[in-house]
Amino acid sequence: MATTEATSLARPRGVTRTLRGRPASDGAGVKLTRVIGQPGLPDLDPFLMLDEFRSDEAADYLGGFPDHPHRGFETVTYMLAGRMRHGDNKGNVGLLGPGSVQWMTAGRGIVHSEMPEQENGLMWGFQLWVNLPAAEKMVAPRYQDIPADAVPEVAAAPGARIRVIAGRFGATVGAVEGGTTQPVYLDIELEAGAAVDVPLPDGHAGFAYVYQGAAEVGGETLERGTLGVLGAGDGVRATAKAGPARLLIVAGKPLREPVAKYGPFVMSTEAQIAEAIEDFRAGRF
């Protein structure tokens, strides 16, 4: 049962720029849309990448993401439809179904796979990469498997419901809280014409991504598949346009540190990237 909470904003954020994702593929040929991590938006500190995968064509996703390494950051997978099986070399196994979340801290190194557990039907979700500060890039790996019913839901305003994946909305604590970047990750569902004020910590970088319908966010209309980068302020107002809308609003504390990236490794220096490659090849993950 959703709780009800009301909010108000003193300094609403606007949208400083908008962009659309670009077609891409990853893993064993999985087709996806890359929104952050493309030439138009290489990153949005502390966020390194945002992918949306959405297809009801089995050939677009059946190859999945076989064993591959990560070091130096966190991956957040949020499923809307379909089933994906996670497994890693630390012994973790989990099944992601509709509404579930996997929050994995790669830290000093992990090898994992994400494979579909279906041969037909819609596969739809998101993967977000969140950077770790230099002091935490070599922490022990950690895996959090969060079922759909463990993600709190809030009736935030008339016609507005919010799933609080990370951070807080009012007094509601999300399924994941804390960490250096203090992430906020909200999935917002709006009935036609409904509006909601979403508080966000001052100083956090943030974005809104509309994945169903169209919504006015920070005074800017965002169509489906459009990301809006949020400016400064204490929160943002989102309003559904002609029909219902669904969107993600995500924010995090910028690290403002050097970033060196190479495929699945994100470190602070090129020397650390070379070390990551050597450690993986030597089986030290």
Summarize the structure.
Helix content is 4%, strand content 52%. With 285 residues, it is mostly beta strands.
Question: In words, what does this structure look like?
Answer:
This protein is mainly β. It has 2 domains: 17-150 and 261-284, Jelly Rolls; 152-254, Jelly Rolls, CATH 2.60.120.10. 4% of the residues lie in helices and 52% in strands. The chain has 1 helix and 27 strands. The strands form 6 sheets. It has an 8-stranded mixed beta sheet with strand order 1-14-15-18-25-20-23-2, with no helix packed on it. Strands 3-4-5-12-7-10-13 form a 7-stranded antiparallel beta sheet, with no helix packed on it. It has a 4-stranded antiparallel beta sheet with strand order 6-11-8-9, with no helix packed on it. It is globular. The chain starts with a strand and ends with a helix. 39% of the residues are buried. The mean pLDDT is 95.
Estimate nothing, just give the exact number of structural domains. Answer: 2
The tally of strands reads 27
The CATH topology annotation of the largest domain reads as Jelly Rolls
Low-pLDDT parts are none
Provide the CATH top-level class of the largest domain: Mainly Beta
Q: Span between N and C termini?
A: 42 Å
Largest sheet: 8 strands, mixed
Rg, rounded, reads 18 Å
What quaternary form is this?
single chain
CATH homology-level superfamily of the largest domain: Jelly Rolls
Helix content: under 10%
GO molecular function, one term: dioxygenase activity
Organism: Inquilinus limosus
Family: Belongs to the pirin family.
Protein name: Quercetin 2,3-dioxygenase
